[in-house]
Amino acid sequence: MNTVNGHVVSLFSLTPGGQRIARRLRQALPTLSITCYCAEKYLQSDFLPFDGTLKQTVAQRFDCDSALIFVGACGIAVRMIAPLLKDKFTDPAVLVIDEQGQHVISVLSGHIGGANELARTVAGSIGAQPVISTATDVNQTCAFDVLAQQLNAACAQFRVASKTINQLLVSGHDVGIYIDPWLEATLGFEIQQFDIRGLTVVTEQEVGRGELSALIDVSMQHTRPDWPIPSFQLIPKRLVAGIGCRKNIASERLSACFQQQLQHLNIHPLALAAIGSIDHKANEPAIVQLTQQYQVPFKVFSAADLSTCAGRFTQSEFVRQTVGVGCVSQPVAWLLSDGCLLGDPFKQQGITLTYGVIKTCYMS
Predict the structure, then answer these.
(1) Are 104 and 97 in contact (CB under 8 A)?
(2) Of 223, 267, 335, 351, which has the fewest CB atoms closer than 10 Å, so is most exposed?
(3) Residues whose CB falls within 8 Å of the CB of residue 291, separated by 6 or more in sequence, listed in order
(4) Superfamily for domain range 239-357
(5) DSSP 3-state of 319
(6) How would DSSP label each residue in 125-144?
(7) What ranges make up the beta strands (E) of the chain?
(8) Cβ–Cβ < 8 Å for 357, 337
(9) Are strands 272-278 and 298-301 parallel, antiparallel or unpaired?
(10) How many alpha carbons lie under 13 Å from residue 128 in its C-beta half-sphere?
């Protein structure tokens, strides 16, 4: 979760001094959507009163917001959030700023919640010192969970991998990172663009040599080598799929065809970033169910959108008469992937699937 750009933040000021800090922060960071709360006795026009008590208001906002910021004592913030904590993979970022605006403390969800990043941003905006205590940060190494975010990558064992890799790194163990050559050849993938401090970049031949304690295997492929050391696959979400199909196609048939093609391409299902089709199919039950199954966005395009690149592909007069453009799946995949298609379209029983890969690491 990135809390720095455009996410919802609640700020709790306990005194007039805290309100001054809140105003400075809102003025310095207009891209943050900050709602400021205070006690009713200090209420001013640009603040909302606590809904009952501070504790009740914090509880209401904890599961709704990307971040909570307290201006005041760290102990108060800790007591307010303690009963609400679940785990670092779902809790929001929590920061504490002292009333003089000298320090910004990252209290909770430093990595996944984005508290460390937010603390640095907030501190920089008001001339304060960020206080970061997560072990990987103070030991100046990368963190598995942060690297996964940077790559927009998934991991089937994410919790175990984060704990294992991060503990090895802060304990001084050697951890390797292997980049599938297919990523480099197809996407121009460069791991050096990301934070890999403390990791050793290795080739497949080098994995079994030396003193590596574990391996991060960065690949979209489903079938992986039988690594001789503990390994965790990071799967960049770069696959997109354009779908054309008959009306009311059976969901089971579409799902089966989709899985069949993923297996044929040897692409891991977690690599899927988005599914797309023409706007006529925006409510097609089988496609909607497929996007829910894979938990990815459903992008739809108008016939005019698809016409900008449909001429590159074989046209069907029947399709043109039905939806206004002569083909669907290929131009959809073309637009989703910025022209980087993966293999030929798959056609079977009223279904056409075309896959592509995106070279950017985030699908908006």
Answers:
(1) yes
(2) 223
(3) 275, 297, 298
(4) CobE/GbiG C-terminal domain (3.30.420.180)
(5) helix
(6) HHT-EEE---HHHHTT---H
(7) 8-13, 33-38, 48-49, 67-71, 93-97, 103-108, 129-131, 153-154, 175-179, 199-202, 214-218, 231-236, 239-245, 272-278, 298-301, 341-348, 351-357
(8) yes
(9) parallel
(10) 28
Contacts of 283 (CB under 8 A, 6+ apart): none
CA 210 to chain centroid, in Å, comes to 33
| Residue range 8-133, CATH number | 3.40.50.11220
Per-residue exposure over 314-343, b if at least 16 CB sit within 10 Å of its own CB, e if not:
eebeebeeebebbbbbbbbbbbbbeebbbe
- Which CA distances in Å does 145 have to 3, 91, 103, 239, 273? 15, 14, 25, 21, 18
Cβ proximity of 357 and 239 under 8 Å? yes
Residue that is written with structure tokens 């590159």 in the block: 312
**Can you tell me the distance from the alpha carbon of 322 to that of 300, in angstroms, rounded to the nearest whole number?**
16
CB 354 within 8 A of CB 341: yes
State both tokens at 12: 């709790």
In the predicted structure, residue 4 carries a pLDDT above the cut 50: no
Rounded Cα–Cα distance for residues 89 and 239 (Å): 24
- Summarised one tens digit per residue, pLDDT across range 228-262 is 999 999 999 999 999 999 999 999 999 999 999 99
Helix (H, G, I), strand (E, B) or coil at 345: strand
Query: Which pair of structure tokens corresponds to residue 144?
Result: 């598995």
Rounded to whole angstroms, what are the CA distances from 130 to 122, 127, 254, 298, 317? 8, 9, 50, 39, 62
The domain ranges of the chain are: 8-133, 144-236, 239-357
Give alpha helix (H) positions in 196-354: 251-265, 285-294, 303-307, 317-323, 329-337
Tell me if residue 53 falls in helix, strand or coil: coil
Amino acid type, 276: G
Cα dist. 237→194, 250, 281, 299, 362 in Å? 15, 27, 24, 15, 8
Question: Which pair of tokens denotes residue 165?
Answer: 């890799």
The structure's pTM equals 0.80
For the stretch 69-124, pLDDT in tens is 999 999 999 999 999 999 888 899 999 999 999 999 999 988 888 899 999 999 99
Question: Residue 59, exposed/middle/buried by CB under 10 A (0-12, 13-18, 19+)?
Answer: middle
